[in-house]
Amino acid sequence: MKNSILPVIAASTLAFSLAACGSDDGGSDAGSGGEEAAGADLELVTDGTLTVCSDVPYPPFEDFDESTESGFTGFDVDIVSAVAEGLDLELEIKDSSFDALQSGLALNSGDCDMAASAMTITEERQENLAFSDGYYDSQQSLLVPEDSDIAGIDDLAGRTVGVQQGTTGEAYTQENAPEATITSFPSDAEMYQALQAGQVDALLQDLPVNVEHTRDGGYEIVEEYSTDETYGLAMKKDNTALVEAVNEQLTELRDSGEYDEIYDTYFSTEG
Description:
- The protein has 2 domains: 5-135 and 232-269, 3-Layer(aba) Sandwich (D-Maltodextrin-Binding Protein, domain 2); 139-227, D-Maltodextrin-Binding Protein, domain 2 (3-Layer(aba) Sandwich).
- The chain has 9 helices and 14 strands.
- It has helices at residues 75-86, 98-102, 105-108, 123-126, 168-176, 188-196, 207-213, 240-256, 258-266; strands at 5-7, 49-54, 63-64, 72-73, 90-95, 114-115, 129-131, 136-145, 160-164, 181-185, 202-206, 219-231, 234-236, 267-269.
- β3 and β4 (72-73) form a beta hairpin.
- The longest helix has 17 residues, at 240-256.
- Mean pLDDT is 87; it is low at 1-34.
């Protein structure tokens, strides 16, 4: 398990093919030769394509990037790109609200095959979703302006704290800062804008995301919280074939060393 983490600027993202693929009508023929499309047994939304929903932006895990063929970049993007390549599938990424992802709505309505959005595996979410094996261990953290007198979570009584709705950061804040005024936002982008505007006094959320907000100066992380959180790739609860196939690919990524290459593109370790 990796310990303290600091994202580093990504030199490049994994290249992935996003060319148009086979039939979209649910058939199993990939072309005039009548060959079975890749992933025909995985109950995909579109034959031959792994359709992934993600709440963007949430760097360094997912972000918009017009310079890439997909229009997206980030750690999660590279992971699912490698998974899709291993399954011989094209990759399509869709922007979606995190609440729709963690509730299972986006998957169960047929918008996508998988949710890859820095999503922690929890018992509550497992009631509606199936998760892959864990692919990332995370921590929570508290971000404040550099001139703030907030030194930790014990100083949040009577202060306004920004969190993202439906996340484990929100749950952690509710449990550990009950005297704070908690304001929930749909996305990290809106949370950070609120902090910049002075509408909230602090942000409590995933450590790597808060680290990104310290890069331009003016903000600092005053505390980190070990919460034993592990991210998983979420899929429909009854699609066991896809879950098994994805887990096989994650194992292959680790065994081949490709996972470490992707990890080191975005994160480094200390101590």
